[in-house]
Amino acid sequence: MKPATNEITQLLVRFRGGDPQAESQLVPLVYGELRHLAAACLGRERRDHTLQPTALVHEAFLRLAGKGQPDWQNRAHFFAISARLMRQILVDYARRRRREKRGGSCERLPLEEALVFSTAKSADLLALNEALERLAQQDERQCRIVEMKFFGGLSIEEIAEVLETSPRTVKRDWTMARAWLHQEITN
Predict the structure, then answer these.
(1) Is 68 left (phi over 0), alpha (psi -120 to 50) or beta?
(2) Distance between CA 45 and CA 94 in Å, rounded?
(3) Measuring CA to CA, which residue among 178, 172, 53 is closest to residue 128?
(4) CA 108 to CA 40: how far, in whole Å?
(5) What's the rounded Cα separation, in Å, for the pair 141 and 177?
(6) What is the pLDDT of residues 41-65, one digit of tens each?
(7) What is the DSSP string of 78-99?
(8) Which terminus of the chain has a lower count of CB atoms within 10 Å, N or C?
(9) What is the Cα–Cα distance from 44 to 122, expressed in whole angstroms?
(10) For 136-149, how does the pLDDT look when each residue is reduced to its tens digit (9 = 90+)?
(11) Under 8 Å CB-to-CB from 35, ≥6 apart: which residues?
């Protein structure tokens, strides 16, 4: 059973206020959703990806905890930030893999063996990340919408709540951002 949105929001507010018990109550409530979010993010990656959803969630938790006192407004905002962190983790992972592909710490393989491993999905993620960075320079809100929708799996209504705008505006920006990204990535 999914925890109530307002229960998570109340725990986030208590946690932000310094209540140590709030964190221990919050983690079990959001862990399942974060793991589902991580699995969805990794589902868009290559099949032989070595990063597992559990590891992605744990890395995101470590980064969330390392940022000091969070300023989460509500459940949707928490998951939006989590989605952005997961995107950053996957991009960092893809960059490390690209470095290794170019000689880093990898052992040398015969060409036939090297062709068995596909890095196409990592390259796609890096291309998407670069396009999102360009989009952020043109329209920060559209970039955030893509992060929350694509990486975070948030609904239009949840994104509208985080951005404090109307669902209609979010839908319009989502449509425009998708079209812009498609053009950027395919050209």
Answers:
(1) left
(2) 10
(3) 178
(4) 33
(5) 10
(6) 777 676 666 778 888 888 887 787 6
(7) HHHHHHHHHHHHHHHHHHHHHH
(8) N
(9) 10
(10) 999 999 999 998 88
(11) 53, 54, 57
